[in-house]
Design brief:
Shape: elongated
Helix content: 55-70%
Number of strands: 2
Radius of gyration: 23 Å
Structural class: alpha+beta
Order of helices and strands: HHHHHHHEEH
Distance between the termini: 39 Å
Length: 229
């Protein structure tokens, strides 16, 4: 959907934009509208801002639910049936966890329950980038930077060509494989925050990997406590 939407932004001609802009007028009438050259990057940044904010909105609930579920696994595995202890897990302990900084939440899950994700640094990077994206029309400011910049780090999948060792392969045929790695670059203060299509899709992939890692961690912990039986 991101690829399709971006393709629409980039394939729309100036005449197409003018035609639709005339049709979509509301009262009171806006005295001016963005030019064709201005609206393209503005639209892409709008999509990026909403994609990241919506995607990253699940990070905190996933971490918090993981803590609660694992604590309930301990409760069930211990054979404890005390309703007061159950209420402590679901209310007081949850409220205490909610107040922790996100770094501390990751730390608690890993130390207590063995739940870790390989994209922790990537998620934290995206959260900082998204925070900066909401400020000053998407231009990175000193307040949102560290040492005059902010590092973007995401997980990416690239299609690479490798030499084929298959003797049955036809001469000259291409052997294409998927390669998962990290994509990093620095955004400087004063620079408009912009993602390429590959970076945009990579950000979504990163969030998906985070959720998958946490869910697998919950499953493994439930099995280790016997709560999944």
């Amino acid at each position: 959907m991101v690829s399709y939407t971006l393709a629409g932004y980039r394939k729309t001609s100036e005449s197409d934009y003018d035609e639709f802009a005339q049709q979509l007028q509301v009262m009171p009438r806006q005295p001016a509208r963005l030019s064709y050259e201005e609206v393209k990057p503005a639209s892409e940044q709008w999509l990026l801002r909403n994609t990241l904010s919506d995607g990253l909105a699940i990070v905190m609930p996933v971490l918090e639910d993981a803590r609660t579920i694992c604590a309930l696994c301990d409760f069930k595995g211990s054979g404890n049936k005390d309703p007061e202890q159950l209420n402590e897990i679901a209310s007081n302990q949850r409220a205490e966890f909610l107040q922790q900084e996100i770094d501390k939440k990751f730390e608690i899950l890993e130390e207590r329950y063995g739940i870790a994700t390989e994209v922790k640094a990537h998620i934290l990077s995206l959260m900082e980038i998204t925070k900066a994206l909401m400020m000053k029309e998407g231009v990175l400011t000193d307040e949102e930077a560290e040492d005059g910049k902010r590092r973007l780090k995401i997980r990416s999948v690239q299609i690479v060509q490798s030499s084929s060792e298959d003797s049955s392969a036809k001469p000259g045929s291409l052997n294409l494989t998927r390669q998962v790695g990290d994509m990093e670059r620095d955004i400087e203060v004063g620079e408009t925050i912009y993602f390429t299509k590959a970076e945009h899709i990579g950000a979504i992939l990163t969030i998906g990997i985070f959720v998958t890692d946490v869910l697998r961690g919950i499953q493994a912990y439930a099995q280790s406590t016997g709560a999944a039986d």
